[in-house]
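User:
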Amino acid sequence: MLDEPESGVDLENLEILGKAINKLLQKYLWRTRAKSGLVISHLGFILNYIEADAGYVLMDGSIHCRGNPRELFKGIQRHGYQECVKCQR
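Assistant: Predicted structure:
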């Protein structure tokens, strides 16, 4: 479990951090994983560098949205978290 791994990391080193996380959780030839992990992010910019299989938005103690992590993040950037309240999927 990685809780806010990008916290305090400058933009130049964010890619290095993302590559290291990918290596820890890498997929193999048949696109399966031998390991799993949980990455908690408040900013989401780490998603530009890691291959996450699923994303969830937790608000007020409940999961409000789930889906492709990059798509969820783009939606939050465009519309804010209030769209996640409406999502309920």
